[in-house]
Structure formats: C-alpha cells, structure tokens
Amino acid sequence: MISDDSRSFHAVDYAIFALVLAVSLSIGFYHAFTGGRQRTTKEYLLANRQARLIFFKILICIRFIYCINTCVCSVVEHLLV
Predict the structure, then answer these.
(1) Into how many domains does the chain fold?
(2) What is the rounded CA–CA span in Å between residue 68 and residue 53?
(3) Which has the least CB within 10 A, 2, 26, 40, 73?
(4) pTM higher than 0.85
C-alpha cells in the first residue's frame, strides 16, 4: 500500500512545479510579445504548407502511443484497485 505521506506534495515538488510553470509561461509570453513568424491562423495551423511529412508521421505515432497508454493505464488502475 502507498503511505499517506507519499501522496502529498513536498517543498521540492512545489519548487519543480513552479519552475516548469514559469518556464512555460516565459516561453508563451516571449512568443506572444515578439510577434513570431505566423501572421494568420492558416500559417500557424498548416505551417504555411512548408512542413515536412516526417513531422506529421511523428505526430501521428506520438498520438497513437498516447491513446494506447491512456487506455491501458486506466484499465490496469481499475483492475489493481
């Protein structure tokens, strides 16, 4: 069984969470205020039709693995509890 002490956040956990959040926010604010290269939604979503096919193949593989992992983990969790 898992002890109650290991189920709660400690100071190190909060520090790591705050660091990840700060980095993510700083990246977002940087790209929001510097203007970026995309001017329209079409340029943003379709990469101005200049993206290589390998990027889409990798994206599909990652999404497939994520879906399988999500389904399997939830089934295993319900079976073990």
Answers:
(1) 1
(2) 23
(3) 2
(4) no
